[in-house]
Amino acid sequence: MALRVGVLALQGGFEAHMETLRRLGAEPREVRTPADMPGLDGLVIPGGESTTIVMGIEAAGLEPALRAHHEAGRPILGTCAGLIVCDAEHLGFLDATARRNAFGRQLQSFEVDLEVEGIGDEPLRAVFIRAPWVERHGSEVEVLASYDGHPVAIREGSVLACAFHPELTDDPRFHAIFMAMTTAARERAGEEARR
Ligand code: GLN
User: Fold this and answer.
1) 86 is catalytic
2) Residue 108: what pLDDT?
3) Kind and range of the H or E element at 20?
4) Catalytic residue check, 192
5) What is the pTM of this model?
6) Catalytic-labelled residue, pool 70, 80, 137, 162
7) Is 80 a residue of the active site?
């Protein structure tokens, strides 16, 4: 059965994520209210404006459902603003603190080829748009990629996050890491249910 992956669709770039997920064989679903959350195997929190997304989560009453998803070990992918939303100062799903708009005015938007742990030797074209970087992180956090000495892709348990926009290129390898995490989590949950 296809993986059911929710994409938080309160604000920002959720459409492109839906497209990439579909390409990888998942069944994406837009998430706007708590009623959209049950039955999801994974969840994407897209880029956009972190303040607006955080306020939207509050207004929609989505926080308890997001916490339940996380506590059940179901994977979450946070990209750009989504990384900020997951950090220690917001939902607290990551023992890491993001610095907003970290690359400054000169570097509002740029693209680089990044070496990313777990995607093979070929570098990933990464699109940064008023991106954050990871300012501080705990020892449980795995750094998958850095740029200019700052972590820009990290993973902690079931949470994968990056400062760039993997949904804006046609290279699906970053989403594929998330799909593999989601497949593994669903298999684990299935085994536990059968026990
Ligand atoms: N600058 C935005 C923020 O701080 C993030 C930008 C993005 O998601 N592309 O929320």
Assistant:
1) no
2) 81
3) helix 14-23
4) no
5) 0.97
6) 80
7) yes
